[in-house]
């Protein structure tokens, strides 16, 4: 392939010259030039203080085999999948597993990593600080000693109204049984008595209102108010679980309550400090009400953490839905917590709300995780329901960045099988979406404010269109902070994205981006040298072969040229 061009904003001129010889829409062409074009036009950028250079180049690259194998940070799972399935066989949807008693040993953690776990989630509602520390260190040990690449996320407990049964076991509420909800504190348990953890929980509640437990696990009708407590009758029997959540409904509508609780509790801040000390990669914030809480946490992390910890906002309340776009813009990513969200909105609205949130996240270039009850039946049974498989497929079809297991992996008996179902279902639906060419349906919102950001965004949009139209086998992006890798991912290209970075925080953050395989390697200001080195190393590992076509994008900023950002697109064939 021999297309050569140059697009430069280095003062007043843009020049583009090129000819294409090798491949169009994946179809080989003859070695003689089929077309050529040239265009020169003037563009006044004299008022811009930042010079931007962009290069479009298509050329052949030949491996000399001079560099030694093993200098490239390929994780062992991606390397195996690439060798076995080829570029287009790589799974693009990322998988998050909640770690609990059923999978906390180092052997079980390694099995999850081998099976495709990209991110390990620790729910700070459960287990001790020592338990969490032990799990985090086991995961980091596996990464360092066995060559895995699993990121660590902590999920804050959040401020919420919960019930306490006085014991660690569940209690069955029978139909027409009478129960007392109280804020009184007492040790142990009392028959038919439930403690609420907030003094004003009964304010504004009237006789005839309904108390719904955990989104429908059980329902009670308020008979009368007794002081600060409520005397209730069970109308829908079910299991009451420890730390269950409750909501109030009147005439079939959620009773809006403003408890004036901060998003992050004292315990949450303590858990965050712990997470910082353990060098975690993500913090998922529960029960986010507005963007201010996310911005406050990000500011705190900037001043206290030596690494770039990403902050995810969990969308699980009416308040967060009303302020969705501001929360998405303020955060580094979103988790759609469908379980708790289903407590606050009618169940029939969950599918459309999930679709809308996923779309907004893609528009604003933020990764989105679809969570809660994906394969809930597999907590107890070895095979999922067909409806659950359809649910997983729809999330993949909506181009969610990641899918998450909760109780299925944390406490279930078939966590490995559940992860396998996510992996195989995701892979099959991704193949179907490629065949439909559905990624072209997204109308992209322009994000960049500055000229360099706008150019980077347009380069990535064009790069993905080129990659799909030319039928290239893979996209390589060289990035220090992951920005262009995320912009490429936003476009959901057919070929996989390999992101080469010299920053460990960037590598771990990109673990949550759709279609991105992050690789830790040394990068220099010499882009040609970076490309040649990494291509040779991958070829030496047997993961790339003759006539493979690679599209290369870069946002490396040369240290020697402080005012210049080097951005480029190159297309190469391996010889």
Can you describe this structure?
The strands form 6 sheets. Strands 1, 2, 7, 26, 27, 28, 29 and 30 form an 8-stranded mixed beta sheet that branches. An 8-stranded parallel beta barrel has the order 8-9-10-21-22-23-24-25, surrounded by 8 helices. It has an 8-stranded mixed beta sheet with strand order 11-14-13-17-16-15-19-20, with no helix packed on it. The protein contains 16 helices and 30 strands. 32% of the residues lie in helices and 26% in strands. With 575 residues, the protein is of the alpha/beta class. It is elongated, with a radius of gyration of 26 Å. Helix 10 crosses helix 12.
Shape: elongated
Enumerate the spans where pLDDT stays under 50 for 5 or more consecutive residues: 1-70
Helix content: 25-40%
Class derived from helix and strand content: alpha/beta
Overall mean pLDDT = 83
Helix run count: 16
Radius of gyration: 26 Å
Secondary structure: number of strands = 30
Features:
8-stranded parallel β-barrel; 575 residues; 8-stranded mixed sheet; alpha/beta
């Amino acid at each position: 392939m021999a297309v050569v061009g140059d697009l430069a904003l280095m003062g007043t001129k843009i020049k583009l010259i090129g000819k294409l010889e090798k491949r169009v829409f994946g179809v080989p062409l003859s070695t003689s030039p089929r077309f050529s074009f040239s265009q020169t036009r003037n563009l006044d950028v004299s008022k811009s203080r930042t010079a931007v250079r962009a290069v479009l180049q298509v050329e052949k690259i030949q491996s000399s085999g001079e560099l030694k194998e093993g200098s490239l940070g390929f994780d062992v799972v991606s390397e195996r999948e690439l060798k076995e399935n080829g570029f287009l066989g790589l799974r693009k949807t990322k998988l998050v597993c909640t770690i609990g008693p059923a999978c906390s040993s180092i052997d079980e953690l390694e099995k999850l990593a081998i099976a495709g776990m990209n991110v390990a989630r620790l729910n700070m509602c459960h287990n001790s600080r020592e338990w969490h520390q032990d799990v985090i260190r086991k995961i980091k040990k596996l990464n360092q000693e066995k060559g895995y690449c699993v990121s660590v996320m902590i999920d804050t407990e959040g401020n919420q109204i919960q019930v306490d049964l006085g014991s660690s076991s569940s209690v069955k509420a029978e139909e027409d049984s009478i129960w007392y909800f109280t804020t009184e504190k007492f040790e142990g348990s009392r028959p038919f008595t439930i403690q609420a953890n907030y003094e004003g929980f009964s304010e504004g509640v009237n006789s005839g209102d309904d108390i719904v437990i955990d989104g429908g696990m059980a329902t009670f009708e308020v008979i009368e108010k007794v002081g600060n407590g409520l005397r209730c009758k069970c109308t829908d029997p079910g299991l009451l679980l420890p730390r269950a959540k409750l909501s109030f409904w009147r005439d079939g509508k959620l009773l809006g309550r403003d408890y004036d609780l901060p998003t992050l509790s004292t315990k949450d801040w303590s858990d965050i400090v712990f997470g910082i000390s353990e060098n975690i990669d993500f913090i998922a914030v529960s029960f986010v009400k507005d963007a201010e809480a996310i911005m406050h946490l990000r500011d705190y992390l900037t001043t206290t953490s030596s690494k770039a910890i990403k902050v995810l906002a969990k969308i699980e309340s009416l308040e967060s839905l009303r302020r969705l776009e501001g929360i998405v813009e303020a955060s580094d990513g979103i988790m759609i917590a469908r379980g708790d969200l289903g407590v606050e909105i009618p169940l029939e609205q969950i599918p459309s709300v999930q679709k809308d949130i996923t779309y907004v996240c893609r528009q604003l270039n933020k990764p989105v995780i679809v969570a809660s009850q994906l394969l809930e039946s597999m907590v107890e049974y070895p095979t999922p329901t067909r409806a659950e498989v359809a649910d997983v497929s729809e999330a993949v079809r909506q181009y969610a960045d990641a899918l998450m297991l909760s109780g299925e992996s944390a406490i279930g008996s078939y966590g490995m099988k559940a992860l396998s179902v996510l992996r195989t279902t995701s892979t099959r639906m991704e193949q179907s979406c490629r065949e439909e060419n559905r990624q072209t349906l997204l109308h992209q919102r322009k994000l960049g404010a500055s000229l360099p950001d706008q150019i980077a965004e347009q380069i990535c949009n064009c790069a993905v269109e080129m990659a799909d139209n030319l039928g290239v086998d893979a996209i390589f992006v060289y990035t220090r902070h992951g920005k262009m890798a995320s912009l490429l991912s936003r476009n959901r290209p057919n070929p996989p994205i390999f992101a080469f970075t010299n920053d460990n925080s960037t590598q771990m953050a990109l673990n949550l981006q759709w279609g991105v395989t992050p690789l830790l390697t040394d990068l220099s200001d010499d882009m040609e040298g970076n490309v040649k080195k990494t291509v040779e190393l991958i070829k030496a590992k047997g993961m790339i072969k003759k006539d493979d076509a690679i599209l290369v994008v870069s946002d490396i900023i040369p240290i020697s040229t402080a005012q210049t950002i080097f951005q480029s697109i190159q297309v190469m064939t391996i010889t």
